[in-house]
Specification:
The protein has two domains: about 180 residues, Rossmann fold; about 180 residues, Glutathione S-transferase Yfyf (Class Pi), Chain A, domain 2. The protein has ten helices and 17 strands. A hairpin with a 2-residue loop joins strand 2 and strand 3.
Length: about 400
């Protein structure tokens, strides 16, 4: 099991000066509504403006595919191909990161089970290889309902936070879910094979406890970067939050060795076969956990906060996550993809967001229909006008 090491605020200083990963060139071929596009950047914040439906979010989605996983929309690969195009697509980026200047690329062709991944012209088996060169975090309008939606949404959000620290976490989640589905199917038999069940439960226990441990470590790291000082807690445009995981395995790994928790969970699975068989699903495990976020100054569950307060809490979490990832990655800040982030913020919170981004010196890609909302960024940012299939620099 991998161990997450984070330099927390006030801890020992890292030898590396704070730096930020950057996309300096983005090239698309037959991706969404783009037949072909090349966008060059000097590496600072980028503002993409244009009408609704012009393709602003598609550009963010393309960048998100230069990270492990299925991108910020989680879309099937065939959905990414341009309508009336050749049923294939490609995304390439020139990036500046921990390994210097590197070319990253990914592509898909109709009929392929997985997308192709290339780094500096060399093929790799999975998108997990991108994590050595680039970490990407994102915030989309669909996430505005995170606190009031189902627990599954919050688990996916939490696991995406963990993957930024531990790229193998996503593979563990997939492995656990497959083992659980196999066990559920086997339990449908009138007389399921006990040895086979035991093997599946052994794998579930191993993967499940690793998932719980990684979640707990990542949440501890993130919590330590939320409101680093009392002054920051009171002055920030984004309220500090208290984070917890409601889950049996996550609670156990905080107080007992992982090997012991694995044995306990394996026994629990064996003892709950009849109950799970009757329910038609597994009733215990990391797939049942939930992320709880509490508005710190108000001591109120985020679920009952106003829409504006929920948005501010979510932005604060993403900014704290960026700081935690920077500390975990030798001072390298991740790229932020912020879709329609300024549209529903008042002037104070917009100003607070821009100040946070400047302090982090992070490359943030932001979208919006009104370029005037981003004017406080001034010459530090690059502005592009996005229309169907193109993105042109603005003065």
């Amino acid at each position: 099991m991998s161990v997450l090491t984070i330099r927390r605020p006030g801890g020992a200083a890292t030898n590396a000066a704070p730096q930020a990963a950057r996309v300096t060139r983005l090239t698309l071929t037959d991706f969404r509504n783009y037949p072909a596009l090349r966008l060059d950047s000097h590496g600072g914040p980028i503002v993409l403006t244009g009408a609704n439906g012009a393709g602003k979010t598609n550009l963010l989605e393309a960048i998100s595919l230069l990270a492990p996983g299925r991108g910020l929309r989680g879309a099937a690969f065939e959905e990414l191909a341009r309508i009336d195009g050749p049923a294939s697509w490609a995304v390439a980026g020139e990036i500046e990161g921990p390994s210097g200047s590197t070319a990253l690329g990914t592509a898909w062709t109709s009929g392929a089970a997985a997308r192709q991944v290339q780094i500096a012209g060399e093929a790799h088996k999975s998108s997990g290889a991108f994590s050595a060169h680039l970490r990407i975090l994102w915030l989309t309008p669909a996430m505005d309902r995170l606190f009031t939606g189902p627990a599954s949404d919050r688990r996916r959000f939490l696991d995406r936070l963990v993957i930024a620290f531990d790229p193998e976490h996503g593979a563990r989640v997939i492995a656990f879910e497959k083992l659980m589905r196999d066990r559920n199917r086997l339990l449908c038999d009138a007389t399921p094979d006990a040895a086979w069940l035991g093997g599946l439960e052994h794998g579930m226990a191993e993967a499940g406890v690793a998932i719980a441990a990684a979640r707990s470590a990542a949440l501890d790291a993130l919590q330590s970067f939320i409101g680093e000082t009392p002054a920051a807690r009171t002055a920030s445009a984004f309220p500090w939050a208290r984070l917890e995981i409601e889950g049996d395995l996550e609670a156990r790994v905080r107080h007992r060795p992982a090997v012991q928790v694995e044995d306990e969970y394996r026994r629990m699975l064996g003892e709950s076969r009849k109950g799970d068989q009757a329910a038609g699903r597994c009733l215990n495990g990391p797939h049942r956990s939930d992320l709880v976020v509490v508005h710190g100054p108000k001591a109120a569950d985020a679920r009952i906060c106003s829409t504006g307060e929920q948005k501010a809490l979510l932005i604060g979490l993403v900014l704290a996550h960026a700081r935690a990832v920077r500390a975990a990655c030798d001072g390298w800040a991740p790229i932020l993809l912020l879709d329609e982030v300024a549209a529903h913020l008042d002037e104070e919170r917009r100003t607070g967001l821009f100040e946070e981004l400047e302090e982090l010196r992070v490359q943030a890609w932001m979208t919006g229909t009104d370029a005037r909302l981003f004017e406080p960024l001034g010459p530090w940012a690059e502005f592009f006008r996005v229309s169907d299939g193109s993105a042109a620099p603005m003065r």
